[in-house]
Please model this.
Amino acid sequence: MRIEIEHFDEEELQEMGVFEWPVWEKDESKFEWYYENTEHCYILEGKFSVVTEFETIEIQAGDFVSFPAGLECVWDIDIAVRKHYSFE
Model:
């Protein structure tokens, strides 16, 4: 169960409908999270790390991230986050 980070250009993101997805925002903080469903998100602003039992991933603005269903993790937000998100 791994977090995937990809990079798409603006045209690809538009084709995927990313800019129509809701926006989520969170200030600097640290919290535990469990993903019941797979989440895809595009990071608009911010910088944070996500710690799982397998790895620590650094995520920042411009990253397209997929979090798999069943993932348990800890978010550690260094710079406030704004992201578009969608659940499967």
